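User: Structure tokens for both sequences below?

Assistant:
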Amino acid sequence: MADDAGLPREFAALAGQIGELHERALVQFAPIVLHILRSRSRDAGRIERTLDHLLDFCGHAAVLQLYRRLCRHYHGIDPDAALGYVTAYRTMYGREGEPGSDGGW
């Protein structure tokens, strides 16, 4: 069977589950990122672990904004490592360009 958009119901259900997962990731990681930013943490291990986890959910616009904010913060601590995370995002999600060229980094 298909839904109104012509997608099989299983795909529509899966898309809904992915959306819910992205929302849960946002709820879970937003306080962590905000704490890192507000405390001006320089704990590279914690920042990198958080970026590693966020990267999987950057298909969600609000999670991507957290990722970008944390990358900008990390740039002040370790510019090369931060650029590596920007590159990882662009590789995974197919974005081109240099950091800063799109105004988001």
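Moving on to the next sequence.
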Amino acid sequence: MPTIRDLVAAIRDREGVQAAIVLGRDGLVIDGQGVPTLDTENVAAHVPPILLAADELGHATAQGALQTEVLEYERGYAIVSALSPDAVLLVLALLSVNLAQLLYELRRNRANIASLV
């Protein structure tokens, strides 16, 4: 049976992925790997307000709870995927990543990922 560390490593090893971080909704890192210049603890601490805003928007628009959020920046993507009421997965990727394939795999494996947390 794979561990959460194995999962994070598998996502991080994908071409174009700079970081994979599993964190609590409080912003504390459960496990994470990223490029050496990335402070995963600092990055994770910025995620909770984004989650809160996305969840509130989903409820205000009758869309329901957040499942996946994709933020596009000048130099890459931030993908936030809700795993459970207590944990989320943050993936940081370069613009060159195959975004459609990455999103498909994250969605397809969401339950398996969540079972490891």
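User: Anything stand out in the second?

Assistant: The chain has one domain: 4-116.
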